[in-house]
Write a structure and sequence with these properties.
This protein has helices at about 5-10, 10-20, 110-115, 120-135, 140-150; strands at about 35-40, 45-50, 60, 65-75, 80-85, 90-95, 100. The protein is α+β, with helices and mostly antiparallel strands. It has 2 domains: about 5-30 and about 105-150, no CATH class; about 35-100, SH3 type barrels (Roll). A 5-stranded antiparallel β-sheet has the order 6-5-4-1-7. Strands 2-3 form a two-stranded antiparallel ribbon. Strand 5 (about 80-85) and strand 6 (about 90-95) form a beta hairpin. Helix 4 (about 120-135) packs antiparallel against helix 5 (about 140-150). The chain starts with a helix and ends with a helix.
Amino acid sequence: MNIDFFRRHQPIFLCLMLAFSPAMIVAKRRAPAGGRVAVVVDERLSALRTTPDFYGALLRRMSRGALVAIRGEKRNREGVVFCRVNISSRTNGWIQRDALVSPVRIGDDAKLFRLIKGSEDFDRIVRARLFLDHFTSSGLRPEVLMIYAQAA
């Protein structure tokens, strides 16, 4: 291989180096038990509430990348879907479905891909990394890897 090949593909090599560097290799968080695993990707919508509506008492805000276990879903009067989730063995509540993606739910990879494309700067990098970590068999991985490399 010649040097021109490496220059043309520099973003990809940079991305791969970042992805496998010792600083990026950290202990993976364990998902809470009790349901289908999902990841918080939109912190603006990630209010954990006591009831499945916007007026339920706020328990906490979930940070982007937090793992939850979905136990069920319920549509409120306004038509918004809320998920009953476990945060830990002691904490559970309701969170808006639009704040979550699940690797086992069909179409959630495309949902996160659209969110990545609509993001900028650091948000784009973090969401792309979440995609690469959790959607290991998605057909959108090459495009997300390219976005990740360009953003980095």
